[in-house]
Specification:
single chain; 253 residues; alpha/beta; Rossmann fold; 2 domains; 3-stranded antiparallel β-sheet; 15 strands
């Protein structure tokens, strides 16, 4: 078994058990204690877990910004369906802001049939997938401070870079969406990036799965009414439907 396969398996085990010992890993994966420790060290560096005496515990993706590796594996089917619907709103020649979220990353496979797209993102993982794909588009990766846990660029340089562009569409996700508290993120820096993308775009589209409704996190990005379109995976709670109708927000589920 290759190291990436072992490490993905360790993530799956931790998502089920929340914690694991080195001894248990050696028994479950048929590997040596030294190999288990190396894999745990590699995953800790990526922010997936925290090592403990004799084992490791899973990092809670909701207590901090969370590792992109963990977030990519959460609600995968829902995120793909949401992104398929989002791609259907794009047209050849569009310019599009893409945030660095694990939700928006799922749109990459649906862009291959478009022509002349101009894609601007602060997501290092998204840019990498785009340039290695087969689509007919240009990709601009925004400069700035690199945050390995989210595989993104943030900070004043990133904000300044975004200010040089204007796009037809902004595709963003969020950590939480709540009627009283708006759309929010776990940290200020990610909120600032999304605020600038929205300010510099004509149509604002929020991609949000059902697990995020009714939740509020540290940094408010904007009011829900600042979006033109919201795409989700299930029928929203009635109070949200009433809000969307009242503020003339197009809902796609």
């Amino acid at each position: 078994m290759y190291s990436i396969e072992r490490q993905n398996k360790i993530i799956e085990i931790l998502q089920q058990k929340k914690s694991i010992s080195v001894q248990k890993l050696t028994e479950m994966l048929f590997i040596s204690p030294a190999t288990a420790r190396r894999d745990l060290a590699a995953l800790e560096k990526k922010g997936v877990l925290k090592r403990t005496f004799g084992g490791a515990v899973l990092t809670d993706p909701n207590s901090t910004e969370g590792s992109i590796i963990i977030r990519q594996q959460m609600m995968v089917k829902s995120k793909r369906i949401i992104c398929e619907k989002a791609a259907a709103l794009l047209r050849n020649g569009n310019s599009v802001f893409l945030d660095s979220s694990s939700t928006v990353a799922n749109i990459v496979p649906f862009l291959s049939d478009f022509r002349y797209l101009l894609l601007v993102t602060n997501g290092i993982h998204i840019a990498s997938q785009l340039v290695n794909g087969t689509g007919d588009f240009r990709v601009i990766l925004i400069g700035g401070e690199i945050v390995t846990r989210s595989n993104s660029t943030i900070g004043p340089t990133a904000i300044q870079s975004l200010g040089a562009f204007h796009c037809d569409i902004c595709l963003c996700s969020c950590a939480g969406i709540d009627i009283a508290n708006g759309v929010s993120e776990l940290d200020v820096e990610q909120s600032e990036i999304k605020q600038m993308m929205m300010a510099r775009s004509t149509v604002k589209i929020l991609l949000v799965d059902c697990s995020k409704f009714g939740k509020t996190f540290f940094s408010k990005t904007c009011d829900i009414s600042d979006y033109d379109v919201i795409i989700t995976d299930q029928k929203s709670p009635k109070e949200f439907l009433d809000y969307f109708n009242e503020h003339d927000i197009k809902l796609i589920c």
